[in-house]
Amino acid sequence: MRALVLAEHDGHSLRGATLNAITAAANLGGEVDLLIAGHNARAIVKATTTIAGIDKVLVADDPIYAHPVAETVAALLIEHARDYEAILAAATTFGKNVLPRVAATLDVQQISEITGVVSPDTFIRPIYAGNALATVRSKDALKVITVRTTAFEPADNVTGRATISQIPAVNAPIDVQFVREELTILESPDLTSARIIISGGRGMQSGENFKMLEPIAEKLGAAIGASRAAVDAGFVSNDLQVGQTGKIVAPQLYIAVGISGAIQHLAGMSGSKVIVAINKDEDAPIFQVADYGLVGDLFKVLPELTASLSSLSSGA
Amino acid sequence: MKVLVPIKRVIDYNVKIRVKADHSGVETANVKYSANPFDEIAVEEAVRLMEAGIVSEIVVVSIGPAAAQDVLRNALALGADRAVLVQTDNEIQPLAVAKLLKLLCLQESPRLVILGKQAIDDDSNQTGQALAALLNWPQGTFASKLVIEDGRIEVTREIDGGLEILSLALPAVVTTDLRLNEPRYLSLPNIMKAKKKPLEIRPAASLDINVEPRLITVRVEEPQQRQAGIKVADVTTLLNKLKHEAKVI
Prior knowledge:
The structure holds two protein chains of two kinds. Chain A is of the alpha/beta class. In chain A, 24% of the residues lie in helices and 28% in strands. In chain A, the strands form three sheets. Chain A has a seven-stranded parallel β-sheet with strand order 5-9-4-1-2-3-10, with helices on both faces. Helix content of chain B is 27%, strand content 31%. Chain B is built from six helices and 13 strands. In chain B, α2 packs across α5 (188-194) and α3 (94-108) crosses α4 (127-135). Chain B is globular.
């Protein structure tokens, strides 16, 4: 059993999600190689040779990978697939974009977003936004797998001794041009990777009131989210939505403010380590999943929270 | 320009799904179904492109049981011109869906396929990419904006950390993300009109493609349920608990 993990990077450094995918690959029980497609990627490559469990780092360093698109990265993976029994990537927007293309070309049914490895051909994956967990066995000789990163610890990046092997670029005869990237310079962390999230619901009553969450988010280093009800009411934009049709999150701490706890919201956040609910309705379903519930009017609670956090951070 | 929009019929997002007692799957009897929300966004986008004069024909396709005619009828009521149901009662996994759609694309010759980035039942997020691969077409996944000009489509993609803009030669496959648009509501007159629009039913078996599942579902389980915790009296207690008990701040 030999597995190949597709590395994800931003042109300068390896993205942490790759380390979680490597752990999942190692759980298959065989050798693990890493593939990096990039341009002027020497620094990234060097940093990967110490990742525990990696045997070989395959490097395709070429201008066509300066902004790697699915079509070219898939072509590269397909070229090397015959040497492997499994190909894995983190289930990030990058991995989700590339791997199904690889799988379909090789006539393989991909196994998406696994959260557990039962055996080299059997995996656990959430379905229905995590409301059920399916154990599935793949009949394909080659396994193509994306990995839910929150389900696997990152591989350590200290003790490994991988060798580097340069591989040629593979051109895909498909007309796709990278135009530009607009990366958000985040004042608050990204929802899907935030350690703490504070979300507002319909109880916030207006978009203006969402500003009350900002000082708290800032003090906690938290990302701001919202329920679908708040998005549908036009308080905030769609990209803040946490839930089945929005973002699935699993932070260390999730604070739900004025959120009743509709199924579709719970589906997006019930994987959080600790959940806090602040709601004036003590019968709100959100309290059924909250570790700490505070029944109260959010317009009183939020200013208190802001004040208390200020005194907390000033060492009082 | 012709557009093909595949639509999956799924358990409605408001339904709290229940795992079957024998752990073979989830309960599907007497459960409300509707169109996959991301596919509704795809239909809406196609209709908007038609209203803008860019698209001349919209063909909607579903692969599923006879009851999937409902989601096709709704799409016709929203503005699609005709519908095709590839009828089967079997489980069709994403790779097989992509193979069936490829065949339809070869027959229909659309310049663009728009579909949801993922279905909210199996959460696979594969079909669009797989279809693009099988057709050897470019793909623009997780789209939040589309601009069609001079035989190309510029796709703004929602990626981790921001946006990526790609320019794809047509024909191409685009998958929709939430921010692409907000689907309109159906109007009664349009629902009535849609009843007269053509809906062709083709048995999946007649397409002569091997759709045998490659993933065997061994068992389906409920995730560990969270237990309700405690109620705290005030903000001070809450912060204390978070700091000293849960140790998350």
